[in-house]
Amino acid sequence: MRQNILYILIAAWLTGILAGCESFQEADKADDIAPLSVEINITSEVYETSGEGLILTLTEINKGTVIEKSVTGLTMSVDNVLPGIYNLSVFGATEDTEGNNIYLNGEQTNYPIIEDNKKIEMDMKGSLLGPVIFKELFYSGTANFYFRNQFYEIYNNSEETVYLDGVHFADLYPTNATTVRPVWREQDKGDYVYGARIWKFPGNGTDYPLAPGESCVISQFAANHKLPQYNPNSPIDGSSSEFEFNMDNPNYPDQPAPDMVHVFYDGKAGKGGMPQYLTPVFGGAFVLFKPLEGETYDPVNDRSLQALDQDDYFAQIYAKIPYSYIWDAVEAGPNESEINGKRVPGVLDAGMTYVGDIYNSLGVARKKRGERPDGTPLLQDTNNSTNDFERGVTPQFRRYGSKMPVWNHTLTGK
User: Are 342 and 354 a contacting pair, CB within 8 Å?
Assistant: First the structure.
């Protein structure tokens, strides 16, 4: 008897659920749902801007419908929005009130818009659009298991001469793309990326000018990798590199290219016990940055700039790098499916680039969007590495006819 009653109750419950679903579906299909208006208020604690150049998108997550508008002011009304659950974003390149080129990004996810004249706050995170950007990266190495030919080419995409003296290069933690996020101490959280190892360009302020249209190549080992003692299958000869990451390894002796200055590893200025600087052949995350004028960046002696991942078994120390210092960031991963394992926040790089395999002698190169009158390229920079880079290219120094700086050691003989 009890069993029969239980069956009756379950049947009644299921009938009610199904009836509710039908009612919901009918309501969802109704043509007389009144559209709503919303008010978007754009704010930023760091940058003052008019918002010109930004794009606002509202994406209804169930139907996939998208509303896209150019930002016309820091307060915007959007009409004809159907009730639903939305992902909202404001993003793009713009200027702050001091004329600096910046990239802003703000998001609200799974946001219910079900009432009219709803006011929605969009708090924007920002970063500088630096004058010098990553142009080409070769990190995958060459068969069989040869990685000494890794290089990173940077490029002056602006219209002004930039001095590289004191500009920093860092690879970021986590080393590989992963959905397992670091667990930072409370004092380490904030608008930072976290450097595993940091280098900087030498110089006294004006020693290394990079003119518009000029490239600078930094190689792991600035040798001719095609030589028999290295790897004749290497796609590049690195001997014309401007700089190298010298790790004082007698098996890979110091080359004529000037050395980058080592700044930080595991809380110390020393290079550590491993005599090599290998970035992930699967694809790392990299930043170029420079401290703001008047600020000192010393993550070795300033403990407030050191961070600990509480889930890191080895308790390695990482360096906090403020968003506001960063000129460019590029995220690379094994393949397109690893986008969920991004290490770089969207305000710095909204995407990810890749070559699809390791030791395949292929790299990534930033897309060309135009030319200067002198024939040097203008490169695409939308802060989205998925869109900005050609993937799986044969690596090449100074692609598109970019120029070599006059102080390159192969030109000066020094």
Answer: no
